[in-house]
């Protein structure tokens, strides 16, 4: 039995005609509905009349059937890439076997779906140039894309810019989806959940915490409904971060506790370290320094064991905790061990070095301090700007440089307004 029902329904919807219009003078509405839902095989004479009304030749029929079969395989692959995103090699083999089919025998929209699936794979394989090439090829024809392909393109191009840490561009891409205008009926729920998660992530990096929380809760609702546990945990982590920023510390701790239980059982060291890092921040905020130190140390231990590149970030935060507690010697030892950090962390490393080491009087390094503070501002790291502004304000006040101290206090107030 061939997939005539799906072929007829797809073509009918493309032509934007109703079942009543299609079956008039050929068969009953009930019979056509059963054919489209593949509950009965159509009679050959009836099928011939329906295909003729739909303008489908025998050659087109073969193309449609092959395209439909390939599309179903591609939808399965895209879901597999979403669920098993840490192991793309097996999926690559499967995609290559599908692509071996002559692409030009497929409908153009299915050919495009192959490219979009390749885009997702290139992102996972960190082949940034290959991914960008596909985005630059598709972007000029964006307005011509049909709903399903349009959604996949927005989702994956947005993901590309998230991975590139270009959150402004990522947000611009993701906001091309008009969920009010179209519900994207052919788009699977997992993709919609992922869309909400990425949107929440972008708003989180832009410190728009209320919007971030709104969208992560929408994503979490979908993932829980679909029993996608690992992605639900990702949402709980982001939700906990939002609640921490909104000073809803009890709910934040509860969300992270859900994550710890699951991640410990799964031995997911990377995400468990991320949760411990954020639990450290929560306990630091509620002035439980001992517990904060405990979680930061757990996070560093986990990150060191897997060579996680974000290890330096947690170390810097732990250094700040030691510094704020007046444990300068511990802060200095840890700072001396910070290496292989990203360029975005460089200003913090330099500023901490000035505060902790004090090899040169502060008044002699004022230009250097100002330069690194401007770098933090350009990165929109407002919490860090606030913290360092307060520390330098206090440091300059201690040496009676009150004008400079007041300038830093004013900067701290401004920075606080950006994150509150």
Q: Specify the helix fraction band.
A: over 70%
Q: Give the N-terminus to C-terminus distance in angstroms.
A: 62 Å
Using the CA coordinates, give the radius of gyration: 28 Å
Q: Shape, please?
A: elongated
Strand count: 0
The largest sheet, given as strand count, sense and whether it forms a barrel, is: none
Q: List low-confidence stretches.
A: none
Structural notes for this entry:
By secondary structure, the chain is mainly alpha-helical. The chain contains 22 helices and no strands. The chain has helices at residues 4-15, 19-23, 29-36, 44-53, 58-83, 88-99, 108-124, 128-138, 147-163, 167-174, 189-205, 209-225, 229-245, 249-266, 269-285, 289-305, 311-324, 328-336, 346-357, 366-378, 382-398, 402-419. The longest helix has 26 residues, at 58-83.
Tell me the layout of helices and strands.
Layout: H1 4-15, H2 19-23, H3 29-36, H4 44-53, H5 58-83, H6 88-99, H7 108-124, H8 128-138, H9 147-163, H10 167-174, H11 189-205, H12 209-225, H13 229-245, H14 249-266, H15 269-285, H16 289-305, H17 311-324, H18 328-336, H19 346-357, H20 366-378, H21 382-398, H22 402-419
Helix pairs in contact: 5-6, 5-7, 6-7, 7-8, 7-9, 9-10, 9-11, 10-11, 11-12, 11-13, 12-13, 13-14, 13-15, 14-15, 15-16, 16-17, 17-18, 17-19, 18-19, 19-20, 21-22
């Amino acid at each position: 039995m061939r997939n005539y029902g799906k072929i007829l329904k797809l073509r009918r919807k493309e032509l934007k005609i109703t079942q009543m219009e299609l079956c008039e003078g050929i068969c009953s509405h009930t019979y056509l509905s059963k054919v489209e839902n593949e509950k009965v095989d159509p009679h050959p004479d009836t099928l011939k009349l329906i295909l003729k009304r739909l303008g489908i030749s025998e050659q087109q029929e073969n193309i449609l059937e092959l395209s439909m079969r390939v599309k179903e395989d591609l939808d399965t692959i895209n879901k597999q890439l979403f669920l098993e995103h840490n192991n793309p090699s097996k999926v690559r083999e499967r995609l290559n076997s599908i692509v071996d089919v002559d692409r030009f025998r497929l409908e153009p929209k299915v050919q495009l779906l192959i490219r979009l699936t390749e885009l997702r794979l290139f992102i996972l394989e960190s082949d940034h140039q290959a991914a960008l090439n596909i985005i630059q090829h598709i972007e000029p024809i964006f307005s011509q894309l049909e709903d399903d392909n349009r959604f996949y393109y927005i989702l994956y191009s947005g993901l590309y810019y998230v991975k590139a840490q270009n959150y402004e561009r990522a947000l611009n891409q993701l906001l091309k989806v008009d969920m009010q205008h179209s519900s994207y009926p052919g788009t699977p729920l997992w993709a919609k959940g992922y869309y909400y998660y990425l949107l929440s992530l972008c708003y989180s990096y832009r410190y728009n915490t209320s919007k971030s929380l709104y969208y992560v809760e929408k994503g979490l609702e979908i993932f829980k409904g679909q029993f996608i546990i690992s992605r639900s945990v990702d949402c709980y982590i982001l939700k906990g971060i939002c609640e921490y920023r909104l000073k809803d510390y009890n709910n934040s701790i509860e969300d992270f506790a859900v994550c710890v239980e699951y991640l410990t059982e799964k031995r997911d060291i990377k995400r468990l370290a991320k949760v411990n890092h954020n639990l450290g921040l929560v306990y630091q905020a509620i002035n439980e320094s001992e517990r904060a130190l405990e979680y930061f140390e757990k996070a560093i231990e986990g990150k060191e064991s897997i060579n996680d590149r974000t290890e330096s970030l947690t170390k810097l935060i732990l250094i700040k905790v030691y510094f704020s507690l007046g444990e300068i010697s511990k802060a200095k030892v840890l700072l001396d061990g910070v290496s292989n950090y990203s360029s975005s962390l460089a200003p913090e490393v330099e500023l901490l070095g000035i505060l902790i080491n004090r090899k040169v009087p502060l008044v002699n390094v004022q230009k250097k301090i100002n330069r690194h503070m401007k770098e933090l501002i350009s990165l929109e790291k407002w919490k860090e700007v606030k913290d360092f502004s307060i520390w330098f304000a206090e440091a300059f006040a201690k040496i009676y440089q009150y004008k400079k101290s007041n300038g830093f206090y004013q900067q701290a107030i401004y920075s606080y307004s950006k994150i509150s």
